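FORM 7B: Structural annotation worksheet

SECTION A. Query
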Amino acid sequence: MGMRDDVAILMGTFQGARFLPEQLDSIRGQTYSNWSLWVSDDGSTDTTLDLLRSFEKSVTSPVCVVNGPRRGFIRNFLTLACNPAIEAAYYAFSDQDDIWHADKLERAVAWLKEQPPSLPALYCSRTHTVDETGVSTGNSPLFTRTPSFSNALVQSIGGGNTMVMNRAARTLLIEAGAEADIPSHDWWAYILVSGAGGRVRYDAKPRIDYRQHASNLVGSNSGWRARLKRLHMLTQSQFLKWNAKHVEALGKVERLLTPENQALLADFRRMRTEALPMRLRVLYRSGLHRQTFAGNFGLFVAVILKQI
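SECTION B. Predicted structure
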């Protein structure tokens, strides 16, 4: 296996000692062994750094720990993704508290290798969720519609902890910059890659155990509790605020989008400001959509309430 096919694993850590050993074990156990681990630690005061040091001694793969910017997890991941010192063929985001299935990297790289290197390509997958003790709590929702910019503008379908991208996709993140003010790094990656005319693969088979616990920063998006939470977020204008951030951030890198997607972004902007009949007309014409019936109903309601 030539070094051309190496994967740089980009892990953000902060006070991660409780679950980190299992995550590191699952990285060590990958069937795809051509990887290096880059950790941006955001100022942990627990034993996170000790665990990383002992892991480094236990593997032959390169492990490098850098100091994070200490400005939250989004900035931590974006700074790592844009770090010019990290050179690889592929880049995989990793959280500190999940468990990767043994074939996660192998599956992702197999698909990425089939894509033209010049075309941005992003792999993500469904997740199997587990609780604090590792007991299964089911799978994330299954999405069946083809990933696209018209979906990405209104929905994030893949967690960063499942994402692996090629160099061309990583270049888009660098172009957009580590200071992009966005709601989450994974949703941003989906928006940029699809917007630039790249390819996004959503693997319907879960490739990680996604751990949900009290200190999780971003929770699962399945079940009625999640739906009620989303409804509450709608009434609190959360989607409106997220969309405003995306529109502003995309405005700075509009040159990266295909002409077709520049037109779609213009429609999206219009939909956020026009009177109701025009908003509904633009929604219908633009093809903006979420992955499920319930999701699309929520989108329709958001457009009516001017919460898009």
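SECTION C. Observations
Residues 58 and 214 are 30 Å apart (CA to CA). The chain has twelve helices and eleven strands.

SECTION D. Sign-off
Analyst initials: ____
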